[in-house]
Design brief:
The structure is a homotetramer.
Chain A (H helix, E strand, L loop, with lengths): L2 H12 L13 H4 L7 E6 L4 E5 L5 E2 L3 H14 L20 H5 L10 H14 L3 H13 L8 H9 L2 H12 L7 H12 L2 E2 L1 H12 L14 H14 L5 H7 L4 E3 L4 E6 L3 E6 L10 H14 L5
Antiparallel strand pairs in A: 1-2, 1-7, 3-4, 5-6, 6-7
Helix pairs in contact in A: 1-13, 3-5, 5-8, 5-9, 6-9, 6-10, 7-9, 8-9, 11-12
Subunit structure (chains A, B, C, D): Homotetramer.
InterPro entries (chains A, B, C, D): Beta-lactam/transpept-like (IPR012338), Glutaminase (IPR015868)
Catalytic activity (chains A, B, C, D): L-glutamine + H2O = L-glutamate + NH4(+)
């Protein structure tokens, strides 16, 4: 089957699942999105693109932006970032303070909230406005200058950010946050509010499938080794507490968000983005995870 | 560089590291092995083999046998095993009882001791003697009938198995152990005592690089999908608490043991085994991990 | 009001509560006891006794025996026991392994199972048969030679002792258990099976109300200072995870058991025992706790 | 011995201990206090007072104020406060976030920081300025209108309050903080900065020794039952993680602070305050704890 047929097949298969997930409800803007949306887009490294369903509709990236913030920080600061954030799966709910306290303020990895706040802090030390720096980075790798924050979402994030404030203050207490807590939280909330479509997201992630180099421009974001290492991190830590299960079922490096988006990579071949707002119990898109599982089966693509 | 040159290069490079690791000391038989050993062997799916150093010397497989026990159980029982053991990284020391208690006796994955005991329990329900069944399975996939237990090691394991007894009794209390505790522990201790050489280990693991089929015989141990899924588990959970770091540095599915052995896979191409008894702080072979990191760099092989 | 009137008042008041508790069900012998039993007995240091309801019916002491085992060990070994068991409230479920692992095999206090096993271990090192030693000690302080084990209960305890086995093996692994695990568990299960009536229990505990000296015989079990210290331990740790709440409501040093018995002390005045098999969510006798709360109110007795 | 002789004896005995404790260092104002200070004062319910050493020197009350804030809140709100804060010992370091997260934002007791913040929040809902309300309450029960905040200490507390901010935000996230985080933290930091002398502190606490009634004025702060219950809380939770050990050694209800002060009660007889800035590993005054242990021994006073 060609990719377009495969996407159409998957889109038909997931329909019964769309009613089973639960949309995130902690902010009104996410709560009011219909769980019946489904979109999927493939960006092949040779430039071919395929898509199905709501692949061009914008959605809130949320934690998927953690990947881009990390890529930006890693490209600028290199391996020094690992002195402040670990590279191990968390093994407990993604916003838990327990592990953070036991491990003296050093987050387990850059994809849990604590780790993402450290990355934001690192970027806040380097850029005048770290949220703008991330936005410009995303616009560049997606080749799409109109990508933007959603100010309403960002504002709601800020108003419900008590747990993130708790995490940030705890890290501040341990000396692992250098900028003011409010600065870091504000930037983080804006970063999370970025909206993109599946088609844009697949294109934006394609440099990680091509060993750190943007396919259409040849710009090198990361060295090949660094890019592979980010892929490894995505596989072991990219989908909250379900990373093991996700690797077992899907077998691709991926990063998910509570907006229902997931970006996954077939190294050397393509990037694939999927969006469906209904989440499973682990906070990952229910239909999206299934769609990617079917994608690796139907394309016989897996890194294993 | 060809594989033989690469192995020779790595063997030269690791020499300074051999004095840095610490051999496991919890049983006398492991404590008295010199940390200066180093062996490495590659088994290509086309039948070619390469090796260097102490690649033909037998060593204690220890936790590497958890992989073979799992493969055997998975081949016989299929996905039903996941009702009794999870597929997520543990995120805490590999023999911790804490997580086991919080999660009501269901171990996080089959590669921590608790999970391996559940797998042994499953095999003990199916086979008259689960340890013999595992041994025969290993002999078959390694094509080497003289592979055997080390009775002295098994006896020492039994004598120092208090923590494993604690784990087993706790799971028994939660109803997740069906056979007598002593039966399971005895079998587990014998299984851990299996000795093999790197050359044998690489050959034994090659079916996992060839999608579940033994390369030289064509025997199908696992379906392609199941085999890929075991690879995913190895990557996310195969190297104790360092799985994230190992994936970051090495980027291959692997299973390690405190005897200093590590088996790693390049899916579709080869299996590689390394042995050096000096361990790092996470319980993985220090020189062995470095050797595999260099192997993926020099061969430009990585799953990412 | 005189004590007899007070006991009668309380007995009338608790009747509606008798249907609200839940009897322990982990062994059949406890599960089949009717929750409608209620007995209460007071032993004044001047020798006067008062009782009401089922005060002469035997019941399973269970964890109340931990107090007598501790008193015996403390009387023989003195403060050296505190090198192996702590004196702090546990702050988590009474049979939790978590804290034990974090604290390297040293139990928080002698009234949680782990701590009681250490005390049994200490007694097992000193006496040929620690369970017999405890029984003889209890017979002596109760002035009642026919107090005995319940062999059926002891056997059931042994058969369901997986969690205690887990705890004991974990402590063995940490080096904090000197005798064989099976020896300690067997003794502990027999100790727990001792049966007594409220009248006997109040008399047996009276030496702790009289600063360590048996009121009717003048025999000194513990020095005054040691006796006060056991009282302090009872107050802070004697009623499982509800010690704070129990102190708040009742305000007396006490030790409870899942058989539904509670022994409490008014230092310098009396010992009071209550029995009602229905337990509250914390494992303490529901009607018994209420009865003691009323007792301190109606007698205007409290240590505070 | 009379009280004055006893105090003099104790003062002589503690001299060698004064060099062994460590003063709190997290804010400069505490760090620069000499550990050689020692003061002790007794306030008998009949109005007699005794004192020794630096009994009239002001020191920073710190956590001792948690007792007065609780008494004020309890006197106004009664048992409704227990829906928002527990009554159990914490069993883990006094500022730990772990337990707070496991228990969904409900602190274990009012004497750990989390619980004290909830009490401050309760007071902030009732009074225009909760810190002023606490100060006026303390002035009243100490009969000393010149008791005041230390503005420098309060400012330093605020600047290093990251962990308290983390705790407050976490409770806010769980819905257990009704006023703005900053309001509560500011009030709490001011409350902690109150300075008093031992003589003032003993007098201020005397109503808790007299069943809730101020001895010299007859004003009833709390009912007898409520007062006894606060005593019980002090005993089980008043000295951080060392409450069990403190009860074992001293055997009196007490509340300590990192400024080196401890207030203890002999119900029905007296209140005793001690101050020595050198702390032991649990955060309690090293010489102060020893002094109280000696006090109960020499006076033969204990609640047990």
């Amino acid at each position: 089957m060609d990719y377009q047929t495969i996407l159409a097949t998957i889109c038909a298969e997931v329909q019964p699942l769309l009613s089973q997930g639960k949309v995130a409800t902690y902010i009104p803007q996410l709560a009011k999105v219909s769980p019946r949306h489904f979109g999927m887009a493939v960006y092949c490294l040779d430039g071919q693109t395929f898509s199905v369903g709501d692949a061009d509709q914008k959605f809130s990236l949320q934690s998927v932006t953690k990947l881009f913030a990390l890529a930006l920080a890693f490209s600028r600061e290199g391996d020094t970032i690992w002195s402040r954030v670990g590279r191990e799966p968390s093994g407990s709910p993604f916003n838990s303070l327990v592990q953070l306290e036991y491990e003296r303020g050093k987050p387990r990895n850059p994809f849990i909230n604590a780790g993402a706040l450290v990355i934001t802090d690192i970027l806040s030390s380097r850029f005048v406005q770290s949220d703008i720096a991330i936005l410009q980075f995303v616009r560049m790798i997606a080749d799409q200058p109109n990508i933007d924050f959603d100010a309403t979402v960002a504002q709601s994030e800020r108003e419900t950010a008590h747990r993130n404030y708790a995490i940030a203050h705890l890290m501040k207490d341990f000396g692992n946050l250098h900028n003011p807590v409010k600065t870091v939280i504000d930037s983080y909330c804006r970063q999370c509010s970025i909206t993109m479509s599946c088609a844009e997201l697949a294109k934006a992630g394609s440099f990680l499938a091509q060993h750190g180099t943007v396919p259409w421009s040849g710009a090198q974001i990361l060295g090949a080794s660094s890019s592979k290492r980010l892929n490894a991190l995505m596989l072991t830590c990219g989908t909250y507490d379900a990373a093991g299960d996700f690797a077992y079922r899907v077998g691709l490096p991926a990063k998910s968000g509570v907006g229902g988006g997931i970006l996954a990579l077939v190294p050397g071949e393509l990037a694939v983005a999927v969006w469906s707002p209904g989440l499973d119990a682990t906070g990952n898109s229910l239909a999206g995870t299934y769609a990617l599982e079917r994608f690796t089966t139907l394309t016989a693509r897996s890194i294993f």
